[in-house]
Amino acid sequence: MNPSDPLLQLVPLYHVNGWGMSFAATMVGAKLVFPGMWSTNDPKPIIDLMINEKVTRSNGVPSIWISILNYLRAIDPKPHFNMKVVSGGSEPPVAMMRDLSELGIEVIHAYGSTETSPLTHIYVIKPKVLSRMRNDEYWPHRAKQGLPIFPMERKVVNEYGHDVPWDGKTPGELLERGPWAIREYFNDKRTFDSFHGEGFDIWWRSGNAVVIDEDGYMKIVDRLKDLIKSGGEWVSSIDMENYLMAHPAVYETTVIGVPYPRWGERPLTFVVLKPEYKDKNKNALRKELLDHLSSRFAKWQLPEILFVESIPKTSTGKFDKKVLRDQYKDYFSKEKINEI
Question: In terms of domains, do 82 and 48 share one?
Answer without folding.
Answer: yes
